[in-house]
Amino acid sequence: MSGNNFGPQEPPQDPRIFNRKVNGAYRPLAGFFNALPPIGGMVCHWCKQPLTFDPQRGWTHPEGGLYVMYCKACGWEGAPYPSPTTCPNCGDTHSLRDKHAALPEKP
Fold first, then answer.
1. Domain identity same for 21 and 57
2. pLDDT above 90 as % of the chain
3. pLDDT at residue 92 above 80?
4. Phi and psi at residue 34, to the nearest 5°
5. Which pairing describes strands 104-105 and 58-60: parallel, antiparallel, or unpaired?
6. What pLDDT sits at residue 41?
7. Is residue 5 part of a domain?
8. Distances (CA, A) of 4 to 1, 10, 11, 12
9. DSSP 3-state of 69
10. In sequence order, what are the beta bridge partners of 101?
11. Sign of the torsion formed by the C-alpha atoms of 47, 48, 54 and 58
12. Which one of 28, 57, 65, 92 has the minimum C-beta count within 10 Å?
């Protein structure tokens, strides 16, 4: 098993990434993504709405949802989080569909 390290690995010990200065002392970060600057300027490939990156859920639409959904019964469209199981507009339980998932691209 030489040369293959596919299991859990130690993160690089770069103090610029894994430490933050608080009251003059360095403290460890809660996680890698906390050290990254905010990612901005991305829009959804499908609807051109601005996207936000959530480290735990990925790219989200402005309403907070990963998916834009629509209702075949009343025409409602949105991307709420958490995703509803019934239409928030008309209450129909069988006509709610996913329209697309967030797909980031530079505008």
1. no
2. 52
3. yes
4. -65, -25
5. unpaired
6. 80
7. no
8. 6, 14, 17, 18
9. strand
10. 67
11. positive
12. 28
